[in-house]
Protein: Radical SAM protein
Organism: Ignisphaera aggregans
Amino acid sequence: MSPKIVRVRVRRALSSSGLGDVDYALNPYIGCYHACVYCYAREFVSIKRVARHWGEIVVVKTNIADVLRDEVTRYRRGVVGIGTITDAYQPVESEFQITRQCIEVLLNAGFTVTVQTKSDLILRDLDILASRPSLVDVGFTITTLDSSIARLIEPRAPSPQKRVAALERIASAGIKTWVFLGPIIPGYNDDLKSISEVIEVAAATGSVLYYDKLRVKRFMLQKPELRDWVENARSYPWSKLFKAIEMLCQKRGVVCIYSGDVVRSSVLGSKHRKLDSYSKPRN
């Protein structure tokens, strides 16, 4: 199955970000073919049809790189989050190459770029990412290393093994890296064995680990098949699990950060920077 592609022209490329560690957001696409069951992004897209049919429609911002070329001459330099409500390296990027163009524009203008993805397609752009390592960090969402579970909750995303291999290559190129372990879903990826495996990936690549619980969103309440997710998440002993995660990370020498703390820092007016938490890969 391929998504329906809708082409649009936009007036703006960069938008202000409510995230604690980025100044601007840039999303080359609206919607995401990966169709992750838990994806919160559908609640933030402006096109309701895309939200209702998540994973089936991808809107391509065909002129966003041209708009960005103008904006970088007028906007204050800062940190740009690539793919905050989409995966900028979902399959359509292999055809349109819009993400690549935008990253080139940003780096050439001296902006810092932080990319979060589930796709090994990002390796195609390793040349430009590695050309400005001081201005780049790359994060991979890795919820589990169990492919069977990943297929249930992230049905069209690249396998966890492909993500790990891509993370290893990017880290070995001297680029700052991080892993996002989230959302943690009770009954799917909340066991300590599964979590330990992801922490081990972070340790082996010298990556910072961000982690987060499943956050109940409106669309989940409207889906009967997610009722158990909602009920379990609301009654789950999260603080106990978070303490266990912190202990596991401490044992492996991994810097770990609860994503809720990043959100709170944004509300309080301070900023946590992923670049500040980076440590060199361990031998």
About this structure: Residues 263-272, 277-283 have pLDDT under 50 and may be disordered. Residues 93 and 220 are 28 Å apart (CA to CA). The radius of gyration is 18 Å. Residues 4-270 form a domain with the TIM Barrel fold (CATH 3.20.20.70).
